[in-house]
């Protein structure tokens, strides 16, 4: 006879198995891809405007959410984005827990990636909700340098920052492989795409994943460097990675190329909302 300790996990898993078969789960998941695409599209467009001399700015995910908030009917739009980000986070976390959805399955490594992604997008959802509740307040999300400084104060803190950098580098390598080898096609229902849609979906996915690989790679490198040098101010986030590109020789060109790639990823993610194997 099973003990309560074993019955609870089995019960939770059964509930999760039932939920992934519902229409609500599919809708939340697909809306999540649209929300993700919107966030990356805004970041890319703002950076592209800066690179081409048309204003713009370098920002991160929180900045993209603020941009949504400042649009006409911004609070309504931001609420919809928050729901989408929450749906995407839920989808990733459930895939991490169960190893599959109604249409697709994940390997052990992919489940670890889903766990990290689910947590990250859950945080973005919380930031969106915070912006809604604060009615345009400043928010409380710390930048990468401050976060690294806080972690340095922990026992073995610089090792944790270094480990985070190595993990981020791994994510960047995964994005590069996924884009260059077009592995993302395996997760999509390409048989339902018209030839023209599949062609552009492939181009946008390849360019978009490689652009994300560049950004994650830079973030990882500077996290590792911050840990080695024991200098929290060397840690950067997504916005810091774009700024590093802009500050280099031919910076506007480099930033423009990566920014265009992030826009491509945003469009890809929106199309993926329809064709992804959930």
Architecture overview:
By secondary structure, the chain is an all-alpha fold. 75% of the residues lie in helices and 0% in strands. The protein contains 10 helices and no strands. It has helices spanning 4-19, 23-51, 61-69, 74-98, 108-134, 144-152, 157-180, 195-229, 238-246, 251-275. The longest helix is centred in the C-terminal third of the chain and has 35 residues, at 195-229. It is globular and about 50 Å long. The protein starts with a helix and ends with a helix.
Describe, in short, the structure shown.
Helices cover 75% and strands 0% of the residues.
Rounded mean pLDDT is 89
- Major β-sheet, in short? none
Distance between the termini: 35 Å
**How many individual β-strands?**
0
Structural class: mainly alpha
Strand residue percentage: under 5%
Poorly predicted runs are 1-8, 136-141
The H-and-E topology, N to C, reads as HHHHHHHHHH
Shape: globular
| Percent in helix | over 70%
Count of helices?
Answer: 10
What gyration radius follows from the Cα positions, in whole Å? 19 Å
